[in-house]
Specification:
Number of helices: 13
CATH superfamily of the largest domain: P-loop containing nucleotide triphosphate hydrolases
CATH architecture of the largest domain: 3-Layer(aba) Sandwich
Shape: elongated
Largest sheet: 5 strands, parallel
Length: 297
């Protein structure tokens, strides 16, 4: 009789264990479904903020880099001071074709590498392009900064969700002031924010876009721990905005030119290239005069 009771209790235990395992499995699947739904909803909200994504451009530019080039900028005293001190601005003007965009991508890559394991630091960037003027109005530029900052959080910030909830029913867009309030709120969640803007000279001037954009990111810098890096051609209206801030001119460096030539142009085994290699490098390097090699060849 005791054996039968023991066997019956064992069977009950097995059944209960099976039920518990089944319930746990259902709970896990339910959690997975909820997480997936939340993820989809967050992606939908971020896409609603702005469909613009500068990451593909960053990847394209950094892949064009010849290994070893641009190190002069990363090693410069100006960049190192900007990197290690909060609320700093570094302005890097240069002539057309000086390689400003490639150097910007090198700097963005350096920042991402340095802080990739620190969720309290955010790197956001914009590549201005006059061909994309319809997609780079002041609202779009600020929404892009907000989107990138929000993406860096483990879950979508409440201010961004609230913004979406306020407009989704009527399918309206947030006002500039609403976007700015959310931008300031999310930026304040980070210990440091690096804002990188390439080619300010290509940012549209109509509707006071460029001037307003600069004004707003400088205001954000005053209120939050924000560092700003920007490049541009030498345009008085722009350079005036950066008076009093650290400035470092971007020019093609002879060492970078030689590395580019060695890696991209002088790979040939042809005898005459081997024979006159040094002469070719010297003459092209002299001809560059501050311009990045691809622009003169």
């Amino acid at each position: 009789m005791p054996n039968n009771d023991h066997r019956e209790n064992t069977n009950k235990f097995i059944v209960l264990a099976g039920i518990q395992e089944g319930v746990s499995d259902i709970a896990r699947k339910a959690d997975d479904i909820i997480r997936h739904q939340h993820s989809q909803e967050e992606e939908q909200i971020l896409e609603w903020l702005t469909p613009t994504d500068y990451a593909p451009q960053q990847n394209d530019y950094i892949n064009r880099r010849q290994p070893g080039t641009g190190q002069w900028l990363l090693n410069s005293a100006e960049y190192q001071a900007w990197l290690t001190t909060s609320k700093q601005t570094l302005f890097c003007p240069g002539i057309p074709g000086a390689g400003k965009t490639i150097l910007t991508s090198i700097m963005v890559d350096d920042l991402i590498t340095r802080f990739q394991n620190d969720p309290t630091v955010s790197i956001v960037y914009i590549y201005c392009n006059f061909r994309s003027k319809d997609e780079q109005k002041i609202d779009d530029l600020l929404a892009s900064l907000l989107k990138q900052l929000a993406q860096g959080q483990s879950s979508l910030p409440d201010s961004v969700k609230y913004l979406y909830d306020q407009h989704k029913v009527n399918r309206t867009r947030p006002s500039l002031d609403e976007t700015l309030r959310s931008l300031h709120s999310v930026a304040a969640m980070y210990s440091r924010v690096f804002i990188v803007v390439d080619a300010l000279d290509e940012c549209q001037v109509s509707d006071n876009c460029r001037s307003r954009f600069l004004s707003e990111i400088f205001t954000l810098q005053r209120k939050c721990e924000v560092n700003i890096f920007a490049t541009s051609r030498f345009i008085l209206e722009i350079t005036e905005k950066f008076k009093g801030h650290t400035s470092l001119e971007i020019r093609a460096q002879n060492e970078d030119v030689r590395k580019y030539l060695e890696g991209r142009i002088l790979r040939s085994d042809r005898k005459f290239l081997k024979t006159f290699r040094e002469e070719i490098e010297t003459k092209i390097t002299k001809a560059v005069d501050g311009m990045y090699v691809p622009y003169i060849l």
